């Protein structure tokens, strides 16, 4: 690498670290241990959109102007999700986890990093079909208030429904998927009955603590954006929050292997990243 490139990279590193420290001190959002490549990419993207040349200029504007911060925040949190995303995981949940939950008098579930709610509504449909929804309470949390508001609204653009119906069937769906929603003027409205057992609330995995004991914790496609130190910290939080015999379900590119708590879980379904707390 040329000496100048190396110097630019060093400078960028300092500027990013000052920006993230400033955000933490000013707004309480802690991105200091998010993984570097992704966070750098997003900051560079915001820099371009704001027409700024340097990260220090972005820092000045973000610290002084809450709207500028909100714009950057929307880049730093990635809300991508789908109804029945990774259908094989939902199929495995039906087959391998639902029978275990049937033995319990009630079931408490936490979706950490639920984004706009698609994963949560998918689970509500599945629990309904498996006769488990009535005894379930689902807590769905995210750092991003805008995403949570969309989740509460339960609306989906109609053009996504073809793909989602395919996902639902691949996830072992047992009904006509359209019985779960009404459509009007290009918007799909999920049936309000699906929401009755769901509580949507703000919770930051980095700075907030455990708030209940759960039989299942979903945290899918969230920790891919964290560095190892933060991932281990969040695994501590989930371990604390799970009942004995509770299930932890991660995203396809995430794993409990090689984390300090791995030996306290049994691998319930390796391919679908389903783990069970054993001690
Ligand atoms: C890619 S989405 C995943 C949504 C869903 N779990 C799925 O797999 O389809 C990642 C979500 O994690 C949330 N997130 C990021 N950092 C977080 C934090 N520190 N605490 C809580 N949620 C966070 C983001 O706001 C975003 O909604």
Automatic annotation (TrEMBL):
Any one GO BP annotation for this protein: methylation
Alphabetized, the UniProt keywords read: Methyltransferase, Transferase
Instruction: List GO molecular-function terms, semicolon-separated.
Output: methyltransferase activity
The highest taxon in the source lineage is Bacteria
**PROSITE patterns, alphabetically?**
CHER (PS50123)
Q: Name one Pfam family in it.
A: CheR_N
Record domain CheR-type methyltransferase: where: 4-256
Kindly give the SUPFAM superfamilies that the UniProt entry links to this protein.
Chemotaxis receptor methyltransferase CheR, N-terminal domain (SSF47757), S-adenosyl-L-methionine-dependent methyltransferases (SSF53335)
Which named protein is this? Answer: CheR family methyltransferase
Q: Tell me which species this is from.
A: Cohnella cellulosilytica
